[in-house]
Amino acid sequence: MKTIQWRVGATSAPAALRPCGACGAEARFESTGRFRVNAQKKRLDVWLIYRCVSCGSVWNCAVVSRGRPGGVGRELLERFMGNDPGLALECALDAGLLKGNGARRGPVDFAVEGELPGDEDCRVEIHAEGLSGIRLAAVLRAKLGLSRSELEQLVGAGDVACADGADALAAKLRPHRAVMVRARRC
Fold this sequence. Notes:
The protein has 186 residues and is of the alpha+beta class.
């Protein structure tokens, strides 16, 4: 049986959904990709800056709150101060960070890299660091070019299945997940 590797990555930072003080309702806030760093005496605060899509008001999402400068690490602090795009994306994808700041993560746009299954049965190993909460079915549909009903038929027939026995239609994406695909079914 052939083994195929897929890598799933976010193509852009997802919006944060939270109440906007200026709009007076829940609004979409987009990450600016920039951090605000404030160090006073022995305390460090770092925020990821967001803007309301509707009115442009600013919301600072706390990344480090009243931390010790030495506790963050020099390299990470330099990445915050340099507005590292990879770090900004990583923070924007962190659903726990957003939840702790009274927001929730909006839908994530992603791309799947790797070869398609071919003429033989294969095991597809999916690697997706930092993309928790996305349904496995969405990744399979995107990569295999299937509609929801087509994927449901393949799963129902046993042609597509999670290697660990989980329901491929209901399972969430994990950092590492394996899916079995029968030959020429997709």
